[in-house]
Amino acid sequence: MLTGAKCEAGVCTCDSDYTYVRGRCRKLVDLGQPCSDDIDCFFSHNRESVVCHRGSCECADGFYRRSSNVCRRRVTNGEECLVHQDCDGDNLRCVNQRCTDAAAQTAKSLQDVAIQTSQSLEKPHVEGSPAKAPPAPKTRDAETNTDTAAATKRVQISTKRAAKECERCRKFGDPCVEEGVECPEVPYTVCRMGQCHCREGYYHKEGRCMAELGEYVHDGQYCEPGTQFSNRRCTCRNDQFYDNNMRTCLKSALGINTSCTQQSQCSPYGAAYCPSVSPKRCTCHPYARYDEATELCVAKDGYEAYCERDGDCALANARCSTEKTCVCKPSYYYVNERCKAANGGECETAADCAFEEAVCQSPSVQSEDESVEPAEPKRCSCGKGHYYQASGNRCLKEAEQYGDECSVDEQCQPLLGELGQCIEGQCQCDENEHHFKDGKCNMKIALDARCSKTSECFVDGDDQDNVECRNSACQCKFDYSPDVERQKCIRPSGKNSSDRPSALKVITLLLTSAAVLITGSALRDAYYG
User: Can you tell which superkingdom this protein's organism belongs to (predicted)?
Assistant: First the structure.
């Protein structure tokens, strides 16, 4: 098969950018692209649909351009169709895969009902009387244009005569001499390397060179059963499509989101494809949307439109994705039919930002005075007292006091520190591991444990002011005794239960006061004496 072929799951097939035709994988060009022969043009599962006209690929006569690269046959009343757009004529609709005049069909149905009603009234049926069967219609052979019986007899005679006259005729695989010339008595062959082989576009089957779909033949016997012999070519019905092997016809899928096995079954429905993995159902490409009125996948405009490169995207601040759709560039979001800047993106006004509560200003501008000339480009950011949430692309109000409403932890942390959390919709500390002190959430560090600041030290009860971080360890303040087991700082033993000074302390205080007085009196006497 030369270039463009691969072995996939034990089967020879073509690469994604190649199409199998005339015995090998070929890279075909799209509609409107330069060509030198009809076979150069991508035919979307119907060889008759395209031609190379004046050096450019175009839809053939009788076909119309369905989507970006698909040509479909125009059909009239009573012919096979798949979607309404196939039917060429006013009031024609595709009903049960046949083009039907909706108005005429309704009128005919009403007329048939009236006739049947009239006949039933005029000629009542007599029970037991057999109905006379209509004569069997004569069937005619499409190729010989004769009655079936006569055709059968004629075929038998022709077969006998052909067998008698061609007992010594050359056959497929027989030796030949003239290289590159057709072997006599063996249609669609060529002498290659001394043997009679089938030409490109034809394949051997039971001693005969059969035509691939789309190839010309002089007789329908060279087309596979299940295909059509039309305009001297092997083709498929209008509601069927070529199989990848170019030998058999496939039934079309019944519409979008219906079962399929190959891409050709979905091609009638516009920009649709058959997924390579289950569930295999006809699906619109990412760059298309389903239109119920036309029953087609219609290409999108602007955002998610089809593209090959970034320059194909007409939408500002858009790029071409790996799925060949126009999407917003990194740090941009699609909002109100525009690609708007996320936090930190350049802007002219706040309307260029993709989130609410946004401001557009230069990071170097500290004041809110817009008359100040910025030193660098303006960028989108959240206003003062708000936090930007990247996952939701929004500004959230920061908490102003303990217990304020919130939705994420980051709203609480400017106020409560990095340990602040949003618990049950309120900014608070996790009381199992942290405690609120000095306006922040702090780790709970027990007595005698190592610490770095007093706010980390924690004791049970309301005596939080009686503990401090001293010498890198949590300790009770002076005049308080630690109870490590109960994690408390106890009042000094010098105080009784009534919180009045003990007798010992009173005596000590009196003696100290007396000593001061005596010393003062002695100094006075010495001075004046």
Answer: Eukaryota
